[in-house]
Structures are given as C-alpha cells and as structure tokens.
Design brief:
This protein is α/β, with parallel strands linked by helices. It is built from 25 helices and 21 strands. The strands form 5 sheets. The chain has a 7-stranded parallel sheet with strand order 3-4-2-5-13-1-14, with helices on both faces. Strands 15, 16, 17, 18, 19, 20 and 21 form a 7-stranded parallel sheet that branches. Strand 10 (359-363) and strand 11 form a beta hairpin.
C-alpha cells in the first residue's frame, strides 16, 4: 500500500487512508499487476532466506529448557517491536516452531515458514489444500502480535474460526499473547473486551460489520479530535475495534474476490416519516409485469442488472402523463420499475432466496447458507415480498456502507493464504496491492486428472455420473461429487437415489456436524454430494486401503463461474502427497451455459459435438467460464468505483466517509 499509515497511539483509531486513483494511475497499476505476476518465481526464491535465518537459531533453542525458552522470548520481544525484518523474524519463527513442537506436538514444515514469511511481507501465499495453513498462520500471527501489533485473523465461517483458535490457543498462551474469538450473538461489551486482545479470530463479515458500526458511531458524533478520543476512552458511546492494524486472511481469494461483489451495509429501523410508498411499489410491480424484455428493457449478458431501453422509458412517460403523484416523478418511477424487474427476473426463489414462515430469507451466493438477518437495500427486498404476495416490511435506513475492497485497503498490513490465488493474481494486486506467491508443497503432488467428459444434455450427464459413482463404490473407492449450489446438490441426490446408491448430502451450513461428515468422506465406498463450500477447511482422511486403491475421487458435476472455485474442489483430494483423482462430467445445458450470452456458444458446441464428438465441445465451456470471470471482475470494479464516488460525495458534504 502506498498511502501513509497513521501510527498507533493510546488515543487513536489507526487506519490507512484510501488513495483515490485516477484513470491514468489505474492503467499504470494494471500494467504493474502483470509485471508482479511475472515476478512470482523471483519472490518465491527470495522467501527462502527465512529458512536460513531460522536455521541459525534452531539448535540453540532446541537445547533450552522451558525457562530458557521464556528468557529467549523476553529477549526477543523488544527487538521485534523495533523491527520485524529478516533477522528478527527468523529468530521468532525458530522460537515459535520450537514451542509449537513442545506445546502442540506439531512442528512447522519448511514450506509453512515460507508461507508465513510471505504473509508477513504483505503477500498472499498460495498453498495447496491440506498443507496446514492453520498452523502456518501461527508463525505470522504470533510474530506480528509479539511485535506489538493488534492482529485480526479472518476465516470464512464461525465454525472454522472457533476451531482454529481453540487448536492454536495453547501456543499463543505460552507466548504470553491474549486471544479473542468474535462470533455471532455476542453483546457489545463482550465484543469490546475481545478486540482488546492481542489476537482476534473472527469471520470477515463479523469484523467488517463491527468496523462499520464504529464508523456509524463516529458519524453520529461529529466534532473535534478531543471528543472522538473521549469516546475511545469510554466516555459516551464506545467503539469496538482498536483500528485496522494487521490482518491475515484465510481463504483470501474467497474473501477478497468472491464476496467483494456485495457491499457491506449497516441498517437501522426506518422511521414512520421515511416516505415509504407501498402503493407505488405495488403499482411498479404491476407495470413491470407488462413490460417486455428486448423491447422495454434489457439484461446485459452475464450481468445481474436491468437496463431500461428508450422505448420502455417512453411507455412509462405515457403512463405517468397527467398524474401528480410520486409515479409522475421520473427518477422515483424508473427506480421502482427497475427494482420490480430485478425481483421478477434476477432473483429466483430457491436460489437467491427462500420463503420461510412468511418471510423472505436471502441465500448467500458464495456459501449457499441462508442469511435470515440480511435484507436487500434500495427497495429490492420489498419488491421480492410483493412478488411472493407476502406482508411488505418497511425499508431500513442505511447507517453505514462500505465495500470489502475499501475496507482491506484501510488496513496497515494485509497478508493472506489460499489454495487458489494465481487465477486472481491480477485483481489482487490491482485492487489490494497484494502479490501472489506460490509455495511449494511439502510432498510431491501425485493427483491424476482425467480428460473432461462433455454431454449434450444434463440428463445424459447425470446418468453417466451415477454409473461412474456405482463403479467406484463397488471398487471400494470414496467419491466426492461437487455441485454449484444447494439446489444442485438436491438434484444430484435425487439422481443417486433413483439409481439406488446410498450417499450423504451436504450444503454449506458450516457447523461441526457437517465437518465431521466431510472428514469421513474418504472412507471406502462412501459417496458424498457437497457444494464447494461444504466442510471447507476440513481434512478428508482416507480410510483403510483407500490410498492403495487410488485415493479419493472428486467428480465435478459442472464448471463454476470461476476457475478458482473448480480448483478449490479439485484440492479436496491428493493432500500431503496422497493419491487422488479428479474427473469432470459436464454438459451444454449446465448452469454456466444458460442465458442469452451463452446461446451462440451452445450452438457451436452442438455443431462441434456432431462433427468431432462431444469432447470437442469442451472448449466452449472454458470460453464461457473466462467470459463470466471477466464480467464478474468488471462488476467488482464498478462497485469499487461507485463506493469511491459515494465517499467523495460524503467528503464534500462534510460527512465522515
């Protein structure tokens, strides 16, 4: 990050100023991102210096008793506070490694030292699934905390954060570091106490929303520095965090890329004077049902967005002629109609949301989990309620809003780890200035990849998957069938049930029971159907005789919108040098190939299959995937720019942004 960081102080809320780049700066940064990708091998070579630095201290530390180790720690801490460069970090890594082997019974591999050093240097370490990222993180986390920096450790769900914190707590405690775990349902006083710890584990959403609540407090209490510092000391309405110092992110690409398309919004109850016009909303929905796609509006291919056409706007003007109510106001009318069309054509029941007990509950598109406390903004939630003929709730007032892009750009130091960072290397640098460095595996990867099998219809594909699952089951091999969504998992279950195959179905509830089931997915003959997110972060251990028979077989039932997500699923097998096999069963009717943007590719695919065979049509799915990845990346850039514009507007108006 190039912006200056306001140094921590007992009465401060340190965070980095977000730099506003112009078009020329963004072009240069994009060019720089390509150069950073090319320099990845050089960065990996330079990381090896940490191994030499740590090796210098290992023999000495191994010969010390516990009192001697504590004395070495006391001697090291002041030097870390002055400098966390190679020499001090090497000694810290050696000390933490020795303590871990004694306290946890786990000694860090050399490749884990490389990954931790990359994170301390402000990089994203790409480490293969199963390489022990949780233990690897302790080196970077503890070193930064011993240097006096408050550290946030983010993961993708509550179960993983609680599990990782509990497993690593004895190591942190021995080092004299306090540990807090932020989770859903904790009250404000508890949160403040937890954020006062040296190390805080929590999900990206929980920590991000606590930061937004702090921003809302500061916005509600404008004034001079003395007043704001008084709040920090507990006078008046208190703040939760101590600022944005250091963050290390597990599954960094999921947090920084996949979830970055959704802005973070803190809402409050809407007052009676809010001006919510339910009759207008209902009329807009009725009008939207009469409009025709192509004539009155369009949905750009690959984008979840409604664009009104001039002909459609003219029709709306004709409807409003002579009226003097809110429908006659063009801006209000057009916004309401657009949200109604969004609800009708872009938000699908069973995918985008569920209806539970008469309430619309949003389904998180990245995890497949229901989010009962979330609601869409700008009237979209109310339009979906009208569409479903439910009681309409009052819209809420937006108290604070921020994107993940701007949030993580405000941290003084950001590091991360993931199994699939290279595919997002350009975006991670251009948005966050994070370079991706691939870390070698501790043991050689011996997975086998079968050629893609492509079918003309979805029905033929599922018949082939069921036949293959039966074949592997009878051979005593475990099978993991990966799906795009919870609904796709249910459809797969119906096919397997019809074929008479016993199986387990997992969505992405991300609780301990689910993790236990995933851990058993490597038992002989076991068939498991799961979304990509289900049981993420849980090792699948192979049962007796499975390794000798060939290992876990992962079957991709369709391609995702991003190649990274496919690679995450592929990484569920072949961990730590174990055998494994990856197979893909695809069709030209898969979700990726639906929609107008893919119609011409489907036609080409069918023509190729008719002349050269089904396998020749495989390139059309890869082409579609690259197109959709580009569209999603553009949507994230658009969201970031919108957020910047909002920040500039608030700054001009005198608001705290």
């Amino acid at each position: 990050m190039s912006a200056p960081f306001r140094l921590p102080h007992a009465l401060s809320y340190p965070e980095r100023a977000d730099v506003q780049e112009g078009p020329v700066e963004r072009w240069l940064i994009g060019l720089q991102a390509h150069l950073v990708r090319l320099a990845a091998p050089f960065r990996r070579w330079r990381l090896r210096a940490i191994l030499r630095a740590a090796t210098r201290h290992e023999q000495r530390l191994a010969g010390l008793d516990e009192d001697g180790l504590r004395a070495a720690l006391a001697d090291l801490r002041p030097r870390l506070r002055r400098d966390t460069g190679l020499r001090a970090a090497g000694e810290a890594f050696a000390l933490i490694r020795e303590v871990s082997s004694r306290v946890l019974g786990k000694r860090h591999y050399d490749v884990q030292l490389l990954g931790a050093w990359a994170m301390l240097k402000g990089q994203v370490a790409e480490m293969r699934t199963g390489e022990g990222k949780t233990l690897c993180a302790t080196l970077a986390v503890a070193t930064a905390a011993l240097a006096g920096r408050p550290v946030h450790v983010m993961s993708v769900n509550d179960y993983l954060t609680a599990r990782d914190a509990e497993e690593m707590a004895p190591l942190y405690t021995w080092l004299g570091l306090t540990l807090g775990v932020v989770q859903e349902g904790q009250d404000e006083a508890t949160r403040r106490a937890l954020y006062a710890c040296d190390i805080v584990y929590g999900t990206n959403k929980e920590i991000a929303f606590d930061y937004l609540r702090d921003r809302a407090v500061l916005r509600r209490n404008p004034g001079n520095l003395r007043r704001k510092l008084g709040q920090l000391m507990g006078a008046g309405e208190g703040l939760r965090l101590r600022g944005l110092h250091t963050v290390f992110i597990d599954e960094a690409d999921s947090v920084l890329i996949d979830e970055a398309r959704t802005p973070l919004i803190i809402s409050g109850a809407e007052s009676a004077e809010s001006g919510f016009d339910e009759p207008l909303f209902r009329e807009a929905m009725a009008v939207a049902r009469t409009l025709e796609e192509g004539r009155d509006y369009r949905i750009p291919r690959g984008l979840r967005r409604i664009e009104m056409r001039p002909e459609g706007l003219d029709r709306l003007d004709d409807m409003a002629e002579g009226r003097e109510d809110t429908f006659a106001i063009p801006v209000i009318r057009e916004h309401a109609i657009s949200q109604a069309l969004n609800a009708l054509h872009l938000q699908e029941r069973g995918e985008s949301y569920l209806v539970v007990d008469g309430k619309v509950q949003i389904v998180d598109e990245n995890t497949g989990r229901v989010q009962p406390d979330r609601s869409w903004s700008d009237g979209l939630h109310q339009m979906v309620e009208i569409k479903e003929e439910l009681e309409v709730t009052k819209p809420r007032e937006t108290l604070s809003r921020l994107t993940y892009q701007r949030l993580f750009r405000r941290y003084a130091h950001v590091g991360g780890m993931t199994g699939t960072g290279r595919d997002a290397a350009w975006e991670l640098w251009s948005v966050y200035r994070l370079a991706v460095t691939k870390i070698p595996t501790n043991k050689r990867d011996i997975r086998r990849f079968a050629a893609d099998r492509v079918f003309l219809s979805e029905d033929r594909k599922w018949r082939a998957i069921a036949a293959r699952a039966r074949e592997l089951h009878e051979a005593g091999l475990p099978v993991l069938i990966g799906t795009r969504s919870v609904l796709a998992s249910e459809a797969a279950s119906e096919r397997l049930t019809a074929a008479g195959l016993d199986h387990q179905v997992l969505s992405a509830a991300q609780d301990a029971d689910e993790a236990a089931v995933v851990a058993e997915a490597g038992q002989p003959g076991r068939i498991t159907v799961a979304t990509n997110m289900a049981g993420r972060g849980t090792d699948i251990k192979l049962g007796p005789g499975v390794a000798e028979a060939g290992g876990l077989v992962v079957i991709l039932s369709e391609r995702h919108d991003s190649r990274r997500v496919d690679r995450q699923l592929e990484g569920r097998c072949g961990r730590q040098g174990e055998p494994g096999r990856v197979e893909a069963f695809l069709s030209l009717e898969d979700e990726l190939m639906r929609g107008k943007g893919a119609a011409w590719l489907r036609r080409i695919g069918r023509a190729l299959a008719a002349t050269l065979g089904p396998r020749a049509a495989g390139w059309t799915l890869r082409a579609r995937q690259r197109t959709v990845e580009g569209l999603h990346a553009q949507a994230r850039r658009d969201l970031l720019e919108q957020d910047r514009q909002l920040g500039r507007t608030l700054a001009v108006s005198g608001e705290l942004e």
